[in-house]
Amino acid sequence: MPARTWDPPGPLDLHRTLGVLQRGPGDPAFGVRDGELWRACRTPGGPGTLRIAARPAAGQIEAEAWGPGADWLLDRLPELLGESDDPARLTARHRIVHEARRRHPGVRLARTGLVLESLIPSILEQKVTSDEAYRAWRLLLQRHGEPAPGPWERMRVMPEPRGWALIPSWEWHRAGVDAKRSSAILRAVRAARRMEEAARMDLADATRRLMALPGIGPWTAAETLQRTLGAPDAITVGDLHLPKIIGYALTGRRGTTDEEMLELLAPYEGQRHRAARLILLSGRTPPRRAPRFPVGDIARL
Q1: Rounded CA gap, 163 and 161, in Å?
Q2: What band does 294 get if pLDDT is binned at 50, 70 and 90?
Q3: Which of 4, 18, 21, 221 meets the CB 3.0–4.6 Å disulfide criterion with 74?
Q4: CATH of the domain at 168
């Protein structure tokens, strides 16, 4: 069980930095226990589990890891926690962005260095509610993942590419995943090596690599590369809610389109995803007028 400590170069909000990796409550690959963050994933060295704890009195981050992927996870700990991220590169052009950054100085963009780990759940989230996607991810990992190394028994590591490819059609159906999304995942795992190469590319090349695969569009590519690369400019387009939130927060108007959102964020070119994260952290959202979108369940069909 190797361990490591790391001195962050500045303020670090551990939970908000890594919270974007959690896919809903009960995520078998991510958890919080006694204030410590746990993450199970499939690394180039094999399955691994990482436990991360902040030690404010010492100004340090403490980490332990288990499994064949333990050394890989510990070696990449600073990168995961945003060592190469530079929040100061964003110049606030709106008061709400300035205030959000002042209130949340420790939020950094995590960089996992893993593509499929973020790509597969992002595909599951296409065109469905978050609850549906989280349920699918949870069921698929519980039934087809493997127990994660380490002492927390509930954690699971997602299947290796061949394991995803061997999931029968009725299991996708049982998890509520339609043929379009399951087919996109199967294409991704069959091209796993090519997909993982995107972790070593710049944002533009990585986006092109992912979108060369049918079933992966701008929304899915951005959601993946925000986590894989910690890309500060990977703004999500095609989202049902994000343009409306950004538009309302910056102008007070409702019904903002993707095109209008991009115009509003133009002053943050190169840092548009970071600006959007800060706006979301401000909590300024349009009041709900319509009932929540109903959750579908194709497993009942």
Answers
A1: 5
A2: low
A3: 4
A4: 1.10.340.30
